[in-house]
Design the sequence.
């Protein structure tokens, strides 16, 4: 994983060289060499390690993602310290209303760690107050990091590096993968996932560039391409980083808002769904796939509901436009923003938190949250439990879900697993929200704190204004933890803590 991360860090050096950002290129290359060298040394040191157990796969997932975020922060830190202040200020666009580069904020290791964790977990919360002022090379690195982290770093490693043991491959894939085999072999499945991921991203790039040229004909061609490439990677990974100063609101165009809805929608669908449609020509999956169908309804109904609530609150200038865009951004966990959410009323905030961000998109995609499939399973399970009260004991009970017929014990197991994860996710969310409230500025309410914590834990990236270089370091650490735990779906994090503090031997419960 670290060897691959080093390549991801070094690759954006080409973009930095293209724009003449020599210090950025040097920093990216140095970070890539350091990271890959460390990975190579560790791989050589432990090349005779024993075959994996199930718990090892989860521990590797948790520790590996933490290592990725930690080492992935090196480019920010190195570039911020080797770039002279005069060169930093040269990144500031002409006519900008500020005179200091946000690259200076990354001289703080904690801010670098936060930005890296946000990037690789595809969250999108940022310490770069004025994004254009950090330079094109670093902007591209952030987006590329989100894209690389989107489909899964372990999946990427399995697709590139052949594993010595088939059991190791299966366990590592299961610790991070979609849970659905597209091919008989895990190696082929990993490669199929990344191939489809690349196809959809390439489509979004061309779509966004053409759309921008049509909607904003006076927009510079080179800037339109740079925006399209970065937004395509961020959209497909549902990451939410933008090279623009005020996210998508910078365009100031309702038609650009509409244009950018499609990449968010595409990013929220599962990669196995794309494989079936694009590779196997099963176009009926667009309606037959339960997650895709549910998301299409959610986009329409949730967007309208959010718009109506904002109209009722009368606090934003364009309630329909802002409501629809923010809700789709929230439920897809993309995080692009066109509204000042800090001005929203608590009802509108609660609606997007619990009907959008908390749920997220499809399992098997790059989204966060509890995933649509779990929300559907919990809903089905509750209805099934109620209907059982009206059946006799002699009735043979079976329930149909997602095209499968489940026996009573199977349904109980699936329902319990989904409900347990949702409850654990909610408890962690409430706990982190309450803890962060102790260190927040008085101008932020509990609704704002809940929104920001949900955005971090569900890897969304929308902000109510709390995330800022001036925030409390304690709150910053809390959000780093939430982004990490939310990306790996909590269980691997708990298994890692259990292994560190309680060992790996099994215990009676």
Sequence:
């Amino acid at each position: 994983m670290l060897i691959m991360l080093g390549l991801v860090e070094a690759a954006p050096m080409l973009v930095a060289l293209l724009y003449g950002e020599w210090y950025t290129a040097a920093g990216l290359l140095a970070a890539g060499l350091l990271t890959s060298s460390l990975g190579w040394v560790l791989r050589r040191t432990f090349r005779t390690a024993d075959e994996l157990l199930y718990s090892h796969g989860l521990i590797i997932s948790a520790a590996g993602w933490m290592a990725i975020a930690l080492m992935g922060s090196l480019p920010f830190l190195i570039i911020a310290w080797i770039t002279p202040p005069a060169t930093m200020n040269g990144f500031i666009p002409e006519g900008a209303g500020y005179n200091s580069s946000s690259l200076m904020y990354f001289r703080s290791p904690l801010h670098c760690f936060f930005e890296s964790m946000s990037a690789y977990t595809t969250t999108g919360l940022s310490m770069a107050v004025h994004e254009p002022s950090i330079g094109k090379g670093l902007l591209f690195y952030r987006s590329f990091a989100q894209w690389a982290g989107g489909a899964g770093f372990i999946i990427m490693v399995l697709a590139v590096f052949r594993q010595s043991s088939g059991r190791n491959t299966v366990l590592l894939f299961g610790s991070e993968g979609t849970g659905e085999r597209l091919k008989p072999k895990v190696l082929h499945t990993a490669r199929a996932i990344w191939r489809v991921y690349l196809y959809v991203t390439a489509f979004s790039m061309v779509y966004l560039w053409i759309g921008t040229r049509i909607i904003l004909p006076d927009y510079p061609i080179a800037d339109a391409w740079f925006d399209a490439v970065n937004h395509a990677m961020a959209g497909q990974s549902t990451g939410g980083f933008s090279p623009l100063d005020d996210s998508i609101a910078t365009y100031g165009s309702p038609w650009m808002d509409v244009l950018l809805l499609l990449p968010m929608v595409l990013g929220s669908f599962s990669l196995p769904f794309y494989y079936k449609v694009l590779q196997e020509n099963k176009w009926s999956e667009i309606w037959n796939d339960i997650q895709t169908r549910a998301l299409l309804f959610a986009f329409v109904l949730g967007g309208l509901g959010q718009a109506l609530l904002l109209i009722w609150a009368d606090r934003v200038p364009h309630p329909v436009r802002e409501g629809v865009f923010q809700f789709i951004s929230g439920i897809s966990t993309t995080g692009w923003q066109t509204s000042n959410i800090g001005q929203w009323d608590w009802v509108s905030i609660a609606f997007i938190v619990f009907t959008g961000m908390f749920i997220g998109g499809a399992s098997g995609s790059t989204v966060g949250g509890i995933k649509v499939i779990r929300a559907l399973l919990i809903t089905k399970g509750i209805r099934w439990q109620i209907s059982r009260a009206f059946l006799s004991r002699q009735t043979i009970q079976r329930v149909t879900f997602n095209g499968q017929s489940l026996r009573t014990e199977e349904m109980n197991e699936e329902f319990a697993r989904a409900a347990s994860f949702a409850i654990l996710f909610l408890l962690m969310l409430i706990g982190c929200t309450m803890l962060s409230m102790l260190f927040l500025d008085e101008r932020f309410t509990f609704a704002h704190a809940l929104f920001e914590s949900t955005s971090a834990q569900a890897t969304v990236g929308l902000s109510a204004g709390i995330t800022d270089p001036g925030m409390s370091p304690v709150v910053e650490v809390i959000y780093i933890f939430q982004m990490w735990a939310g990306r790996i779906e909590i269980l691997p994090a708990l298994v890692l803590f259990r292994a560190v503090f309680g060992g790996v031997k099994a215990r009676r419960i």
Notes: The beta strands are 245-248, 398-401, 404-407. Residues 433 and 450 are 5 Å apart (CA to CA).
